[in-house]
């Protein structure tokens, strides 16, 4: 048996739609795999009742098929489904790393990214890799159709998760089909700023690079209380705030000394909007780990 811990992730980071991703030190999924004649899946943990155990409908089923590695798979969910924190990606990433080891397939971490991305297509309809890449590789990642590039970084963040759900499919439907040239230039500049900030482990640069006027405003409308939470986070010391992935989680970058204050302010702002929430005081951390 091989057991793998795969982290929650935050995709897009504002200016890097379908390209940027970051692994979070917590929460995480823990997936155990063992060889079997036919694949079976058991799911426990947070939101387990909403996750299908049929291999054809679970993200890990596509990973099993891609690796030709039938197994009994136990998924202990620590990342809530429909959270914007890469719940489906965490399971797929952990399964890919575990099955690769179990069957000695010999893939590198980067080569496992498109394999795990096939699992994302099961839940979102698109085999995007912006969550599975950091879940496997760790740190901050930039993913293109042909490659994944990652860098270790040390950025404190707060991920505030409200007690509401936003499906990835719904969040993709509101993405604008066009953008003005001014918006494109602004987004490229912000994405470049964020990337430099990640390479330098600079929360100020990362925060300013999170700004996005194309996708984020449309997705923010799906999250009750978003503007209040955003303003409260900045007032408490956040350097940048954006929707985490498809939402509804909201991600704030900050200095380590401000992390607790930012977390409390975000939870209070959600409460003021009539929404219960939980804030994870975390940081950008490592990818999937065999435990």
From TrEMBL:
<dbReference type="Pfam" id="PF00288">
    <property type="entry name" value="GHMP_kinases_N"/>
</dbReference>
<dbReference type="Pfam" id="PF08544">
    <property type="entry name" value="GHMP_kinases_C"/>
</dbReference>
<dbReference type="GO" id="GO:0005737">
    <property type="term" value="C:cytoplasm"/>
</dbReference>
<comment type="pathway">
    <text>Amino-acid biosynthesis; L-threonine biosynthesis; L-threonine from L-aspartate: step 4/5.</text>
</comment>
<comment type="function">
    <text>Catalyzes the ATP-dependent phosphorylation of L-homoserine to L-homoserine phosphate.</text>
</comment>
<keyword id="KW-0791">Threonine biosynthesis</keyword>
<keyword id="KW-0963">Cytoplasm</keyword>
<dbReference type="GO" id="GO:0009088">
    <property type="term" value="P:threonine biosynthetic process"/>
</dbReference>
<keyword id="KW-0067">ATP-binding</keyword>
<comment type="similarity">
    <text>Belongs to the GHMP kinase family. Homoserine kinase subfamily.</text>
</comment>
<dbReference type="InterPro" id="IPR013750">
    <property type="entry name" value="GHMP_kinase_C_dom"/>
</dbReference>
<feature type="domain" description="GHMP kinase N-terminal">
    <location>
        <begin position="60"/>
        <end position="139"/>
    </location>
</feature>
<dbReference type="InterPro" id="IPR036554">
    <property type="entry name" value="GHMP_kinase_C_sf"/>
</dbReference>
<keyword id="KW-0418">Kinase</keyword>
<dbReference type="GO" id="GO:0005524">
    <property type="term" value="F:ATP binding"/>
</dbReference>
<feature type="domain" description="GHMP kinase C-terminal">
    <location>
        <begin position="198"/>
        <end position="268"/>
    </location>
</feature>
<dbReference type="InterPro" id="IPR006204">
    <property type="entry name" value="GHMP_kinase_N_dom"/>
</dbReference>
<keyword id="KW-0547">Nucleotide-binding</keyword>
<dbReference type="GO" id="GO:0004413">
    <property type="term" value="F:homoserine kinase activity"/>
</dbReference>
<dbReference type="InterPro" id="IPR000870">
    <property type="entry name" value="Homoserine_kinase"/>
</dbReference>
<feature type="binding site">
    <location>
        <begin position="80"/>
        <end position="90"/>
    </location>
    <ligand>
        <name>ATP</name>
    </ligand>
</feature>
<protein>
    <recommendedName>
        <fullName>Homoserine kinase</fullName>
        <ecNumber>2.7.1.39</ecNumber>
    </recommendedName>
</protein>
<dbReference type="InterPro" id="IPR014721">
    <property type="entry name" value="Ribsml_uS5_D2-typ_fold_subgr"/>
</dbReference>
<keyword id="KW-0028">Amino-acid biosynthesis</keyword>
<dbReference type="InterPro" id="IPR020568">
    <property type="entry name" value="Ribosomal_Su5_D2-typ_SF"/>
</dbReference>
<keyword id="KW-0808">Transferase</keyword>
